[in-house]
Amino acid sequence: MMTGFVGGTALAMRQVSMGKKTLGNLLTFISHWGSIKGSVKQITGSYQSISSTLVNAERLLQLLLTEPSVIDSESSKELVVDTGEIRFENVSFAHDPQNLITKKLDLLAEAGKTIAIVGESGAGKSTIVNLLLRLYDISKGSITIDGWDIHDFTLSSLRKAIGHVPQKPILFNRSIRENVRYGRLNASDKEVEHACKAAAIHKSIMDLKQGYDTTVGEGGVRLSGGQRQRLAIARVLLKDPKIVVLDEATSAVDTLTEAEIQKAVSDLSSGRTVFIIAHRLSTIVKADTIFVVHEGKIAEWGTHEDLLAKQGRYAKFWAQQTSSLER
Question: Domain 112-134+154-326: which topology?
């Protein structure tokens, strides 16, 4: 582009010097060149934008055309949870048959009890939750709720029966009220506020200028990490399921926020079967049973006190975390 401008200007100046063109012609050329340059840049930018959009559209189309590997069977029925007992029996799972993530795993969550799952990063903790939600299907074994295999139920009814608070809550660029109400779309404003009070987030909401009408931004960017977690807990409280899964809900918050979330979790756990995937062991010392996962298997289990007495992996994790806090 610049080479053309320099060449064109040199030619025009030569013609002016020879008397074939006027100085006004030269100035007109330079003025029009600026307009042409801007138009060409705009066209080039539009082309790049269109190319990028087409690539993204192609990826989206490929995603939409992909057949899901986890689907309902023709005989699938609606899940209605009775007591909420969950049992994993001899469960193995792998994306690659040569590399098992869980290996002949056995686990029992008694109805109305809180169990915690701990272990090193990559041990298979979150995979256990994903298998319960049927985000993946197991390779071998069985997972049952109240004695019924989860494959017997529709995916929608299974996931509706389980309240899930992920490590990174999904929040939409809507109001706080609408985000919480996503847990139960026909909930009244009073029910939304009651859930937020139980989740220890109501006061923080009322401190905002627009209160429950505050738009949270995409992904909840206008809220702190602790506020996002408590909104996710409020959403689950509003949903009122008999089974709750908390996936490292306090892994990225400060100690004060952790205490507030713990209070909300305690209220949420009452009368429900609760799975807690824990990073901070201080958050699960009161769990009824703690399962320690190592290389896809249950290495040990028991109460907090039982596991400390065993002087195994859990005791080692506990010593590491408490010593780091004391420094």
Answer: Rossmann fold (3.40.50)
